[in-house]
Amino acid sequence: MEKFNELIESTPLVLVDFFATWCGPCKAMHPVLEDVKSKVEDKARIVKIDVDQEEALAQSYQIQAVPTFILMKNGQPVWRHSGIIPGNELVKLIEQNA
Fold first, then answer.
1. Is residue 40 part of a domain?
2. Which of 26, 29, 40, 51 is catalytic?
3. What confidence tens digit (pLDDT) does each residue in 52-67 have?
C-alpha cells in the first residue's frame, strides 16, 4: 500500500488495472494493455494490482468488479471504468490527460 501511494504520487499519470488471476475478462484485457503501453510509451505507467493479493488496497478503492481501471493523475483518481474497454479508448484517455 505504501509503495502504491509512492508510485501514484511520484508518477504524473498512472493507469491502475485492478484484476484477478481467475477473471476471464481480465485475461482478455492483458494483450490490450500491452498494446496501450506500447502506444502511450512514457506518457503513463500501467500498474496491475491483483485484488486477491492486495485486498486492503482494493477495498480502499471500493473495487467491486474486475477488471476495474482507474486513471490516477498526480495521485488522484480522475477516471474509473469497470469491465472490458477498447484499447483505443484507453490511449485517447491517457493522451487527453497527459
1. no
2. 26
3. 999 999 999 999 999 9
